[in-house]
Amino acid sequence: MDYRQEMKALRDTLNQHGYRYYVLDDPVISDYEYDRMLRRLEELERDHPEEITPDSPTQRVGGAPVSAFTPYSHPVPLESLQDVFDSGEVEEFCEKMTEAAGECAYSIEPKVDGLSVALEYRDGRFVRGATRGDGRTGEDVTENIRTIRSIPMTLPEALPHLIVRGEVYMPKRVFAQLNAAREERGEALFANPRNAAAGSLRQLDPKICAERRLDIAVFNLQLSEGRTFATHAETLEYLRSQQFKVIPCKVLRTASEINDEIRRLNEKREEFPFDIDGAVVKLNNLSDRSVLGSTAKCPRWAIAFKYPPEQKLSVVQDIVVQVGRTGVLTPKVIVAPVRLAGTTVTTATLHNEDFIKEKDIRIGDTVLIQKAGEIIPEVVSVDYGKRPEGTQPYQMPERCPVCGAPVSRDEDGAAVRCTGAECPAQLLRNITHFASRDAMDIDGMGPAVMQQLIEKGLVKNAADLYFLEAGDLEALERMGKKSAENAISAIEASKDRGLERLLYALGIRQVGQKAGKVLGSCFQSFDALSQATVEELTAIDDVGEITARFIREWLDSPQSQHLMARLKDAGVCMESKAEVVDRRFAGMTFVLTGSLSAFTREEATAMIEARGGKASGSVSKKTTYVVAGENAGSKLKKANELGIPVLTEEEFLEKVNGSEETEGN
After folding, report:
1. Which terminus, N or C, of the chain has the lesser number of Cβ atoms within 10 Å?
2. pLDDT band, residue 374 (cuts 50/70/90)
3. Intervals of CATH 3.40.50.10190 along the chain
C-alpha cells in the first residue's frame, strides 16, 4: 500500500470511528487505538502536505486565525418561530392548522438553547458553515464549524447541493468544566451554555473554538437537490442516515397529545446533554407547509412553546468565600437544601462583591433561586419582607481566608484578589508558572509533578523546588531514577536564568515577559528594585501607575519577602543578564520652553526619555527641571514662581553627558 492509499484508508477509518464516538456515542475501539491511527495520519500529512484533504480528521483542530467573519446570504432563510406560553395557545395553533389543512400530524422536538447555523454541502462534501444572523444574512464561520467533530465532512450520498440547519450548543458537562477553569483563572464566568457556545463559535481563532468542544443537534433539511420528501420526519431519518446528529422527534396528532409531550420534555430536560428552553411543534407534512407559507417574521406552520425557568425560595444560611488558583475571591451563598431543575441545591454563586451589594444579600434572607442556563444556581432576588431583624450587610474579607494576606480589588473590575505570594490556594498555579518555559524553564516539572509535590507536602512555595533531592522525585508516580536526576539538573540550571526571567516567574500582577526585561535592565539587581518607589517605577517605559503599585505592594508583602529570602538562600541569581540601562533621569520630569539652538525639542525629548525621564508640556509642582532657551515666556515665569530649577541648554547637556553616578538619583 503506497502512502496515498494508506492516508485515504486512515481518513476513512478515523472518520467512521469519529461518527460512532461523537454521533452514536457507541465507540468500538479504544482512545489509544484511535490516537495511534491519528498520529500515523499526522506523520504522513507532515511528509506529504499536498495530500491533506478538507475531510481529514486532522483538520478539525482549527486553522489559522481570521481577521473578521464575512457575510453569508442564506439561499433558504433561517426563520424564527412564534412563541407560545401555555397549553391553550397550543390548542389554538392546532385548530388553525386543522382549518387550513384538514387532519394534521405534528412533529414535537425539544428546543435546544444554542446558536442556529446552516451547514452547506456540495457533492457530498462540507463547504460552508454560517450563523443565522437575521435569518437572511449570517456570518461565514466555516473554520470554527469544522472543529465540531459530530459534523460529517463527507456524506454517504453525494447530492449536488444540500443545506441543513442545526443548533450549535455547548454540552452541559463541557460548560461546567469550562466555567470551573475560568473561575480558577479569575476570569468572568459564562452565564449559561448558550452564551458560551455563541462566544466560542465567533472566536477569530478556530483553535480556541476547538478547545471549547462544541456539539450540534441538526433539526431541519433546508435544501436537497436530487431528493424529495413528503414529511419532516422522513427528512430527519434521511439526515440520520447521512451521519448527522439529529434532534429526537415524535409525531403526534392531537393537541392533548402534544401538550402531554411538552410537559414530558420539560420533566426530562435534565436528561438531555444540552440545555432546552422549550419545545417546537411543526406540521409534519411538507406540502401543507408550502401552502401555508410564512409571515414577514416566521412560518405559519410552527410554534415554539417556551418553558419558564424553574425558581424556588430558600433561606441563606451563610456566605462563604473561595479562593481560586489566580487568587480571586469568589463569594458563594449556602442555602437550605431545595430541589431545583432535577437536583438538590445547597449553594449558589454570588459572582462578586458588586452583585452582593446590588441585591443587598444578607445571611438569614429568604432568596429566590434559579439555575442560570439550567446549570449554575444563582440568586435572582431577595424577599426583603421576610428579612429577620438584626441582619447586617455583607462585607468581603479584607484578608485572604486561606493565607491571611491582604486582598486587593481590581481597579478595572469587581474582582477581589489575594496578594499573598505563598497562598496555598494559588500554589499549584504559581509554581507551575514559575517553572514554565518562558519563566525559569525547569524541564520535567509540569502540573502533574507539581500536584504530587504539593500533596506530599514537599513544596509550599516556588523556592522549595531548589531544596528538593533526587530521592524526593523518585518517589513520585511515573518518575524513575533517570527522570528524577534530569529534573534536579534542570532545577539547578534554572538558578542562573537572571533577574528578568525571575521577575516574570514570580507572577507579580501585570509583570509579563516584557515588563520583566525592562525592570531587570533598569535596576540590574533585585535589591535595587526592592528599594524603588512607585514614582521611580512609573518613570520607566511600559510601567504604568497601576503596575507600579502592584509591584510595590508585592515587594512589601511579608510572604513575598520570605519567598525571596528563600530563593536567595537557594542560590538563585537575582542579578540582571541584560545590558546596563542609563536611568539617571528616572523619576524626573523636564519641561522645554523658549527657542532652543543646540538641539530641537524632539532631540531633547529623546535624550530625556533615553535616560528614564519624562518630557512634559506644562509646568507643575511635579516638574523637576525647566530647560529654557531664548525668549522663554510663561513657562519660565511659572517655574520661577514655583521655585522649579531652570537649566540653560549648556547645563542640560552637562546633565545628559555627565556620569550617572553624579546625578544622585
Report:
1. N
2. low
3. 589-663
Which residues, other chains included, contact 29 with Cβ-Cβ below 8 Å and sequence gap of 6+? 17
Q: Are 139 and 133 in contact (CB under 8 A)?
A: yes
Exposed/middle/buried for residue 579 (C-beta within 10 Å: 0-12, 13-18, 19+): exposed
The residue ranking higher by pLDDT, 297 or 507, is 507
According to CATH, the topology of domain 589-663 is Rossmann fold (3.40.50)
Closest CA to 247 of 224, 286, 276: 276
Of 364, 354, 356, the closest CA to residue 384 belongs to: 364
In contact, 78 and 138? CB cutoff 8 Å: yes
Pairing of strands 589-593, 614-616: parallel
CB within 8 Å of 529: residues ≥ 6 apart? 499, 503, 519, 523, 555
Under 8 Å between Cβ of 242 and 270? no
The model's pTM is 0.57
pLDDT tens for each residue of 413-438: 778 989 999 999 999 989 999 999 99
In this model, does residue 29 exceed pLDDT 90?
no
Structure confidence at residue 136 (pLDDT): 92
With a CB cutoff of 8 Å and minimum separation 6, the contacts of 206 are 62, 63, 64, 65, 66, 143, 144, 146, 147
Q: Where are the CATH 1.10.287.610 domain residues in the chain?
A: 3-59
Cite the residue boundaries of each domain of the chain with CATH code 2.40.50.140: 311-386
Quote the CATH superfamily of domain 311-386: Nucleic acid-binding proteins (2.40.50.140)
For the residues 190-214, what does the mean pLDDT come to?
86
Q: Which residues are catalytic?
A: 111
Q: What percent of the chain has pLDDT over 70?
A: 95
**Assigned superfamily of 82-306:** DNA ligase/mRNA capping enzyme (3.30.470.30)
Residues in contact with 402: Cβ distance below 8 Å, sequence separation at least 6, in sequence order: 323, 418, 420, 423, 424, 425
The SS3 call for residue 259 is: helix
Fold of 414-579: DNA polymerase; domain 1 (1.10.150)
Assess whether pLDDT exceeds 90 at residue 33: no
pLDDT-based confidence at residue 601 (cuts at 50, 70, 90): confident
> Residue 270's CB: how many other CB atoms inside 10 A?
12
Radius of gyration of the chain from its Cα atoms, rounded to whole angstroms: 33
Name the average pLDDT for the chain.
Answer: 89
Q: What is the pLDDT of residues 539-589, one digit of tens each?
A: 886 788 889 999 999 999 999 999 999 999 999 999 988 766 677 887 789
The residue ranking higher by pLDDT, 27 or 71, is 71
* CATH superfamily for domain 3-59: Helix hairpin bin (1.10.287.610)
Report the SS3 class of residue 542. Answer: coil
Taken as a whole, the chain contains a residue count of: 665
| SS3 call for 416 | strand
DSSP code, position 387: P
pLDDT band at 341 (very low <50, low <70, confident <90, very high): low
| DSSP bridge partners of 72 | 138
Query: Averaged over 632-644, what is the pLDDT?
Result: 91
Per-residue pLDDT band at 664 (split at 50, 70, 90) = very low
DSSP 599: S
Q: Scan for cell 486582598, then name that residue.
A: 407
Residue with cell 411538507: 286
